[in-house]
Amino acid sequence: MSPISLTRYLIEEQQAGRICADLRLLIEVVARACKSISIAVGKGDLGGVLGDAGTPGSASINVQGEAQKKLDVLSNEILLETNAWGGHLAACASEEMDHSQPIPDRYPKGNYLLVFDPLDGSSNIDVNVTVGTIFSVLRCPDGVSAPGDEHFLQPGTAQVAAGYAAYGSSTLLVLTVGHGTHVFTLDREIGSFILTRRDVRIPEETREFAANVSNQRHWEAPMQRYVDEMLAGKHGPRGKDYNMRWVASMVADVHRILTRGGIFIYPLDAKNRAQGGKLRLLYEANPMSLLVEQAGGAASTGRLRMLEVQPEKLHQRVPVFLGSKHEVEYAVALHRAHDANA
Ligand code: P6P
């Protein structure tokens, strides 16, 4: 059978009545932007786009308080420009922008909101480690012609599509429109994303965890216990040896989990407690959680199903536990037991 391109997959989803033409167009445009970002990332030093944005001695700092990389800024610009004129969006929001940005009045507006992390894991760019783009699609509320930040504050269950592009040894687009999670690989010779894994399933059990364990002393007690138990191996309470991986690029860690199972944890810790966590809800945790749930996994803040969190701020941060269902359930149970005895 001839390869199925992203375009053909989306047309078949539209013909099956699972998505509309506007959403199909929006996803195609985001995929096109990701191809452009992949080319920019792939040039590395030759493209003059590595290193920090801003000028020597005057770094460019984003709303997160993080030093922006040149590729953060470039990726954000690519996503905004590519999505401006198509007529399928009402507004965009980004990790790299303080506030959401309406589609310019000179262009037609659509019924969707797009929120993204244009280049997640960008601290890894200068050391040539996989980075990615994470995106989430929401409906613009009916009757809202000039959406603002408050219209993006929808729970993860409201997402109509979510995905990421991974700029690694190959460039991948991993996508859900609410009917399974699917992997597309960029064929650079024809410039198309080709369906390479349909309906990914995450094993319910795992022996692999992803955590920045250097933060363990700052975690809440149940999470310190959780990781200690795994480190104790087969002679410990869990009765099995675990492996650990931490790329410090969520896209890379989540893709490994979608591919072979595992659990990704970024617990609340003393350093980030005031902000509510490290990872952002709207454009990291929610899209990744929808992809993981659509692949048979689970995603939680440790105390609440991630997709049911009601956002209160555009750049809200949350603790994240996602991946193999039974492993996430165990971590959640430790939180519940801790809270019950508090
Ligand atoms: P740490 C990247 O900055 C990011 O937002 C995620 O991609 C990644 O999982 C996490 O932060 C890494 O955090 O504290 O280990 O650098």
Q: How would you describe the overall organization of this protein?
A:
- By secondary structure, this protein is α+β, with helices and mostly antiparallel strands.
- The protein has two domains: 6-197, Fructose-1,6-Bisphosphatase, subunit A, domain 1 (Fructose-1,6-Bisphosphatase, Chain A, domain 1), CATH 3.30.540.10; 208-341, D-Maltodextrin-Binding Protein, domain 2 (3-Layer(aba) Sandwich).
- It is built from seven helices and 17 strands.
- It is globular, with a radius of gyration of 20 Å.
- The protein starts with 5 loop residues before the first helix and ends with a helix.
- The mean pLDDT is 95.
- 6-O-phosphono-alpha-D-fructofuranose (P6P) is lined by residues 120-121, 123, 212, 248-250, 253, 278-279.
Question: Nutshell version of this structure?
Answer:
This protein has 342 residues and is an alpha+beta fold. Helix content is 29%, strand content 22%. The protein has two domains: 6-197, Fructose-1,6-Bisphosphatase, Chain A, domain 1 (2-Layer Sandwich); 208-341, D-Maltodextrin-Binding Protein, domain 2 (3-Layer(aba) Sandwich), CATH 3.40.190.80.
List the bound ligands.
6-O-phosphono-alpha-D-fructofuranose
Distance between the termini: 59 Å
CATH superfamily of the largest domain: Fructose-1,6-Bisphosphatase, subunit A, domain 1
How many DSSP helices? 7
How much strand?
Answer: 15-25%
Overview features:
Fructose-1,6-Bisphosphatase, Chain A, domain 1; 7 helices; alpha+beta; 342 residues; eight-stranded mixed beta sheet; binds 6-O-phosphono-alpha-D-fructofuranose; D-Maltodextrin-Binding Protein, domain 2; single chain
